[in-house]
Each structure stands twice: as structure tokens, then as C-alpha cells.
Design goal:
Length: 400
Amino acid sequence: MLATLWTNARVVTADAAIDRAPNAGTLEVLTQGGRIIAVGPALSREGCRVVDCGGRLLTPAPVDCHTHIVFGGDRANEFEQRLEGVPYAQIAQTGGGIKASMRATRDMSLEALVAASLARLDHLLSEGVSTVEVKSGYGLSVKAELTMLRAARALAQVRGVRIVTTWLAAHALPPEYEGRPDAYIAEVAIAGLEAAHAEGLVDAVDSFCEGIAFTTAQLAPLYNRAAALGLPVKIHAEQLSHMGGTAFACGYGAVSADHLEYATEADAQAMAASGTVAVLLPGAFYMLRETVLPPVAAFRAAGVPMALATDCNPGTSPLTSILLTMNMGATLFRLTVPECLLGVTAHAARALGLQDETGRIAPGLSADMVLWDVQTPAQLVARIGFNPLHARIFKGEVVA
Ligand code: NIG
Ligand code: FE
């Protein structure tokens, strides 16, 4: 197979070793068979197809490492309720929130779910995203949770994208288990996990640890089962209050802890010790008009890698723009431009355990890159409602 040499680009690799090397401003990238073969100045052109990138910015393709893009219905009515002052937790406690999406999702066939999700996926892809994590969590029965993950997997059959699936049955307690959370964890979250895992549908296990969802004591049997199956774990933690989910998940070597507005310095230290990525979700922060910021300074001080993701979901973050997510990471959370870019590339890949597969432009990784009609990362992050995508390159090929 012919190798391709990508020349005349401003390459930002998101790989610290390469970006800091001498001549980092004049890099070329050689790809072959879907992989990155070499990155360096003045590579040999012999036997290569040469692509002139016209001086454009070349970055790793963004990874959206936290989404709920597979769901039925919409919850714009709850947006209106919240505008009138009804808090999110109260909407959730009175049958809305995740349970409203559960009713709509349970009503849909696999085909209908795929069609509904495809529109959201296409918006992400239009901004260069090439890896998308998709969670279950709106079915809340074994059957409906399995259908959600089958729909997620089906998306990768119809688009050039890498889909990573996460089992999130412990997202909310459905009405038929009212007052019986332990039974729900055993009969749906754990039994369903085993079925889904047997079908090859599970790349990681997640949960919602919150006053309106589950406690760490209720979640422990699920995480013990995930560990026994050898599956990586993550957690939605410290989003609305401090429940101890972060430290709990770090005890299982969690690949990521997500949201984290109410996380503490001690949580940051626990995350550093377990190598857990902090996945920050500015879309949910913004939509809920949260005022407590995630402890970014503590993450920096402890050396915890920070990722940014859309958290695309029908309630708290109906966001399908990774570019706006970067902008919000900067304006709302005060991340620097390099932190925003790393947050949606190298660190986002790490949050999925894919740090050796995608998210950086480095030899050996999948050739997942984007050519942008700008010259600097700051120009990508600064603007709002602007999509300078010139070409999305997935596994070495330009995809429409
Ligand atoms: O990541 N925090 C919990 N779960 C989702 C969305 C919940 C919802 O549908 O309201 C989130 O924000
Ligand atoms: Fe989420």
C-alpha cells in the first residue's frame, strides 16, 4: 500500500515529546495502512503520495470521550421549567430528567434509535471528531440497555468513526424498582452487564453517583463485578454534591472521573495516584447554570490530566459541538488553549484507555487527524459558531 506524506502543514501533535522537540514547527507526517509511520522534519518523499496541506493547522482528530448520543425524545420542556426556576434535582425527583428519557427510549426500536442518534453523530463528525464514547443509561432495563449499546455499535457500521461503548445502567432508578436500589443493581445493572459483556457490547462500566442516583455502597457490587470481568471503570461523580464517588472509583483504578464540580483537593490527589483522568463537562455546567467550578488548580498541581467532552444528552447538555466545548473549557473553566486542545485529543483518548491508539500524531498510532482552515490552536478555540474544518482524516483516509 502506498504511503502518504502530509506536507506544508502547521502540525500540533498533542504529543509532548514531539511538540517540544527542535524543528517542531516544520513537521511532516507519513501515514500508511491507516497508521502514522513517522513524524519529523524533511521526511523522504520516495515512493509516497504527497499531500500539500496549504499551510493549514493539522491536529489529532478530536475524541469525544463522554456522550449519551443514543436516546429517544427530547427534553426542551425541562429547559423551560429550569428557566422558570425549577431545579434539575426537583425535575428528576418528580419523574422527569433521566426517567423522562427512559420512557422515550424504551418506546423506540433499534432502527429508530440509530436514526435519531445518527443526526447527533453527524454533527460531531462535521467538526472532525473521529472517536466517540457512547453510554447506555436511558433504558434502565436489561433489554432496553442492550438495545442502546447495539444502536451505538451500529453507528460505526454506517460512518467512518470509532465508537467506544460504556455500560451505564446505574444511571437512575426506574419506577418498577422504587425503594429497591440494591435489587436494581443486582438484577439490571449487574445481570445486564454480564449479558452485554457476553455480547461484546461493553468497553467500560460507568455509573451516576449522586443524591438523585446511587451511593458508593450501592455501587460497590457493580464495580466489584466489573473488576472481576476485567473491565475498565469510570464514574459520574461530584456533579451536584460531594458523594465520594471519585475516591471510590479511584479505588478500582478508574480510567476517568467525570463532571467533578464538587471534587476536592483530596480527590485530585487520589486521581493522581490511580492515574485517573478528570473529564470536565462545561456543557452541563453551562446548561445547569452551575456556579461551583471544578478544582482545576488542584488537578494541575497534582498532575491529573484533564479532558473535555460534550456530555451530549437530552437534559443537561444538549451539545454536539466539540469546538464549542473547547471554547467553554477556556471561558468557563479557565483552561489554557493547549489544555483545551489536549483535553479533546490526547487526554480524551486516555480517558478511554485509547492513549496508544488515537488522540496524538505520533508513530504507531491510528492516522486520525484534522486539517483546519486556521493556523493556530488559539484560532480554533477562540471563536464561537465557527467551523474551520478543511478535511477529516480517519485511519489515513480523508472522509466526507
Ligand atoms: O452526564 N449526570 C448524569 N447524567 C447525565 C445526563 C443526565 C440527564 O439525562 O439529565 C450527565 O449529565
Ligand atoms: Fe454524562
